[in-house]
């Protein structure tokens, strides 16, 4: 039968293991031969022991584990054509014509490029030996499917990415802990959350914790935000609140694109003499067990990825598995990458009105 290879790449996210498990088991159920790849695209380039034939038991007991037991990497070599040529060689030699990649936007861009270059890479490889020429017949077409696992929820055209819900639970439980000590000491707390260029984790955490103020990359504050924020903090104290909570996304900036840091916020608050502390959650958000939601989302998406491969024909465009309104759907890989690129441009041009529309209206309401 045909072969499928599965890898996890980029920053890890809770639920990656559950995703690998679902892909592998659905693939074996449908009588595919399944290869697992260690250390992401780097393993695909290195080959040898990094690409191994797996069976049903290879993914036993990992559904509930965070991280990725396959290992991951942000591979600079795969960004070079020479790296992708080595990856193509390994796929050809093992007769693998289906690739499932689990990761963030960088990973999706990686498989998109590999897919687009595939014919050129193959023609370059077949010129080098007759053995490759024979093997290449079986893999003249490379089918790719993307599964978005990233705590940032920054991917276009899907409601949720795998790992986001778990990261949010981590943030909310940290916030609950902060609230008790902050209340005892009548303090103001600034919590920095992850999300790279996306404010989703910040918005969701603020909604779940009654935060007093929020900074996100997509909605930079007007000039004079320091005074407005302090007024609000004092108003909340006057209304009986014993503490204040401010959430700041790691990528937050002002209207001129200058970063807004927790220290800068703290300095502003000290003008109104509120005792202030900073907590930077960091990688705690990405570690630990996946939530029930992420385990189930990962399992549903993983199974769908394999079904998507089954449905491909020679004219199919590559797909990414998404969730829209609680239904698992397939979206075009090329389109979603184009959307991500245009969002990036809007952010670079600081065209925040268009960013708000692209990201969802809740950022401005
Ligand atoms: O993309 C996930 C993420 O955790 C971002 O939120 C963060 O900006 C980045 O990865 C951190 O990267 P690294 O783990 O390489 O420090």
From TrEMBL:
Residues of the full protein shown: 20 to 384 of 788
Localization annotation: Cytoplasm
Domain (Phosphofructokinase): residue spans on this chain: 4-308
Taxonomic lineage from the root: Eukaryota, Metazoa, Spiralia, Lophotrochozoa, Annelida
Listed name of the protein: 6-phosphofructokinase
Gene: 20213458
């Amino acid at each position: 039968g045909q072969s499928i290879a599965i890898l996890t790449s980029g920053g890890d996210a809770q639920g990656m293991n559950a995703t690998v498990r679902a892909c592998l088991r659905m693939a074996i159920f449908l009588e595919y031969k399944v290869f697992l790849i260690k250390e992401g695209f780097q393993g695909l380039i290195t080959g040898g022991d990094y690409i191994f034939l797996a069976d049903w038991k290879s993914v036993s007991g990992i559904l509930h584990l965070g991280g990725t037991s396959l290992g991951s990497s942000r591979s600079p070599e795969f960004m070079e054509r020479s790296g992708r040529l080595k990856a193509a060689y390994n796929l050809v030699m093992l007769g693998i014509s289906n690739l499932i990649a689990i990761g963030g936007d960088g990973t999706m861009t990686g498989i998109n490029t590999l897919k687009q270059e595939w014919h050129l890479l193959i023609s370059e490889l077949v010129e080098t030996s007759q053995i490759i020429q024979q093997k290449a017949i079986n893999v003249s077409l490379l089918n790719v499917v993307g599964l978005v696992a990233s705590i940032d929820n920054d991917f276009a055209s899907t409601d949720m990415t795998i790992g986001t819900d778990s990261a949010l639970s981590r943030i909310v439980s940290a916030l609950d802990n902060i609230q008790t000590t902050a209340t005892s000491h009548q303090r103001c707390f600034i919590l920095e959350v992850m999300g790279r260029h996306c404010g989703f984790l910040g918005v969701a955490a603020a909604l779940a914790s009654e935060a007093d103020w929020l900074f996100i990359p997509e909605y930079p504050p007007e000039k004079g935000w320091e005074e407005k924020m302090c007024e609000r903090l004092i108003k909340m104290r006057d209304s009986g609140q014993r503490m204040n909570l401010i959430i700041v996304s790691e990528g937050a900036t002002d209207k001129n694109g200058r970063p807004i840091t927790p220290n800068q916020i703290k300095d502003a608050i000290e003008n109104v003499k509120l005792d202030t502390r900073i907590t930077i959650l960091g990688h705690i958000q990405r570690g630990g067990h996946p939530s029930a939601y992420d385990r189930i989302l990962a399992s549903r998406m993983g199974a769908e990825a394999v079904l998507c491969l089954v449905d491909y024909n020679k004219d199919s465009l590559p797909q990414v598995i998404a969730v829209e309104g609680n239904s698992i759907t397939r979206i075009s890989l090329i389109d979603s990458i184009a959307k991500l690129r245009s969002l990036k441009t809007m952010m670079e041009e600081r065209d925040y009105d268009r960013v708000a529309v692209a990201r969802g209206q809740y950022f401005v309401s």
